């Protein structure tokens, strides 16, 4: 692959990612969750389905434990998460989604469906699912995190 092709591929993938994040965020806001930022959505992906410690959130986001703790504090103040005793570690606390957090996560899922609808119209569902599968081969297991 030539340099210009590699650069244009990188640019297109980054543009698609940015567009997807913005469209999901807009949908979440439209569905009544105006106090959520895209970073919070990346936290939610780590918390679903069974929660995570602040240390695990920090690792997932690629930030310090202090920054992850501040995000968890903010989400707790807003009612999206709560801290519970960790079932396997008496010293740790588990951050889990509340009912409000789960409603927001479902709003993000619905927004993702709407965000990719134009892609389905352009490429067709079969080609888009093939693209998803090929991209998953290139980046197996993520993590799904913001590009700081």
UniProtKB/TrEMBL annotation:
<dbReference type="InterPro" id="IPR039422">
    <property type="entry name" value="MarR/SlyA-like"/>
</dbReference>
<dbReference type="InterPro" id="IPR000835">
    <property type="entry name" value="HTH_MarR-typ"/>
</dbReference>
<dbReference type="GO" id="GO:0003677">
    <property type="term" value="F:DNA binding"/>
</dbReference>
<dbReference type="GO" id="GO:0006950">
    <property type="term" value="P:response to stress"/>
</dbReference>
<dbReference type="GO" id="GO:0003700">
    <property type="term" value="F:DNA-binding transcription factor activity"/>
</dbReference>
<dbReference type="InterPro" id="IPR036390">
    <property type="entry name" value="WH_DNA-bd_sf"/>
</dbReference>
<protein>
    <submittedName>
        <fullName>DNA-binding transcriptional regulator, MarR family</fullName>
    </submittedName>
</protein>
<dbReference type="InterPro" id="IPR011991">
    <property type="entry name" value="ArsR-like_HTH"/>
</dbReference>
<dbReference type="Pfam" id="PF12802">
    <property type="entry name" value="MarR_2"/>
</dbReference>
<feature type="domain" description="HTH marR-type">
    <location>
        <begin position="6"/>
        <end position="140"/>
    </location>
</feature>
<dbReference type="InterPro" id="IPR036388">
    <property type="entry name" value="WH-like_DNA-bd_sf"/>
</dbReference>
<keyword id="KW-0238">DNA-binding</keyword>
């Amino acid at each position: 692959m030539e340099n210009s092709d590699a650069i244009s591929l990188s640019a297109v993938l980054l543009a698609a990612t940015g567009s997807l994040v913005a469209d999901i965020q807009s949908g979440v806001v439209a569905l009544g969750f105006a106090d959520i930022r895209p970073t919070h959505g990346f936290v939610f992906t780590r918390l679903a389905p069974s929660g995570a410690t602040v240390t695990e959130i920090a690792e997932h986001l690629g930030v310090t434990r202090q920054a992850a703790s501040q995000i968890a504090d903010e989400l707790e103040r807003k009612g999206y998460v709560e801290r519970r005793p960790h079932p396997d570690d008496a010293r740790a606390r588990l951050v889990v989604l509340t009912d409000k957090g789960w409603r927001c996560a479902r709003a993000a899922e619905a927004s993702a469906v709407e965000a990719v609808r134009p892609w389905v119209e352009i490429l067709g569902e079969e080609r888009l699912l093939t693209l998803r599968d090929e991209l998953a081969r290139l980046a197996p297991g993520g993590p799904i995190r913001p590009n700081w």
